Amino acid sequence: MAVNKRNQSKRSNILVITEALLIAYIGYLSHFILIHLGLSRQVSVETLVVNIGLMTICILLCSLSVGLYETKLRETFRGIIRRIFVSVGLSYFLVEVISRALFDRLVMDGYFLPVAVCSIIITLVTFRYFTNRLGLLGLGKVRIVVLGAGERASIIEKRMRRDVDRIGFELLGFVPIPGDNREEGIKQEKIVHVKVDESFQQFIIDNDIEEVVIACDQRRGTLPVEVLFEARLRGVEVTDLLDFMERETGQIVVNLMYPSWVIYSNGFQSNNYLRDALDYSLNAFLAFIIFIFVWPFMLMTGLIIYLDDGRRTKTSVFYKQERVGLNGKLFKIIKFRSMRPDAEKDGAKWASQNDDRVTRIGHFIRKYRIDELPQLLNVFKGEMAFIGPRPERPEFVEKLVREVPYYNQRHNVKPGLAGWAQLNYPYGASVDDSMEKLKFDLYYVKHQSLLLDILILIRTVEVVLFGKGR
């Protein structure tokens, strides 16, 4: 596991460093060409370094915010081009604002930034094209074999079909184990027929296996413990299926969990005492900063909702609804109203992506998450955080707790405006959808940290920019 994590980190670091060098070099080259064309004047080394450095940092941060450095970015090459245009375009305005506000005396000639930005876009698109097509950053993939070919092992085949799902490892195949449910097991993947005894140890050596994933349906009396012990002594990673899926997919496979795995894991309680101590202060400060920038949009949204149907129906532009918060405590969530006043005349219903109860303006404000902005007040009141599982309605929670195992564990943390599940799964419109979202929610609860919160916050910018509201 440690080997694979290091390789993933290494690939991301190589990508960031390479693109940083490319951006800086293209910035210098653009200035050099403009001077020789007589369109720009020679500047001091200090001025050139400040401008190129600022431009490089802004482009890297904007690229991060739109998900370009995600190791498992599920996007077509056309989508990557679009993200590059957005990130570099945002950087253009950031550089203009920051340089004129803080480095006015070091501002370059007017031609420099437009020419540099256009050249950088072409360079990054070309670089990403060859990176994707030739797999330039796929080096150092971990070679793995899965011990088991039954129902449990089939979760890998079902959930990790695409190449992007396997970017960090090379799967050599599945080894059948006595007791596996082959009828519900592997259908399309390669089956490796090797006995799970000393010959399996030789198979590991001959094929340079770096990790063995334990995914058999029956463990008692079937696992080659001595062989795995010897492999572990040789430095081969031996990983449980649940840990493997958690690492590679960013979710916890709830329906495959068993008591001993929970007991020996780090549980679902935060041990980050500094983060917990500063929780309200950080969230309130961030809410205040965001409110300073978004209050005009909130005022405009309220006015539009009022003119759209609020004036006619005499209904508030805000919508208050009871939700389940930290440790199961109920609170009133505040949102801009995006549905008709009679939306729940027949009782509580699941929200869906194309809900016919949504108003004309409601579709827009949901798509770009504008309807969530009044929840800044919930953050100020300490009922919500910026990052956390989305709070669910008590009517649904009562049912979900009965039908979905471990569902109550998501209430171990404050609910949030944005969450890991919202970045990875669309609207939940059924118990099955709630099960899928819970896998991501529990991953967040188990791994909650300031760094993960920052990652989710940055990725949420991508959701807003590309209108992927969930």
UniProtKB/TrEMBL annotation:
Primary subcellular site in the record, as a coarse category: membrane
Where does the source fall among the domains of life?
Bacteria
Identify the residues that the record assigns to the Bacterial sugar transferase domain, covering every copy: 283-465
Transmembrane regions listed in the UniProt entry? 12-36, 48-68, 80-99, 111-131, 284-307
Which keywords does the record carry? Membrane, Transferase, Transmembrane, Transmembrane helix
Task: Indicate where this protein resides in the cell.
Answer: Membrane
Q: Does the keyword Endoplasmic reticulum apply?
A: no
Name under which the protein is recorded: Sugar transferase
Q: Which GO terms describe its cellular component?
A: membrane
Q: How does it sit in the membrane?
A: Multi-pass membrane protein
Pfam families for the chain: Bac_transf
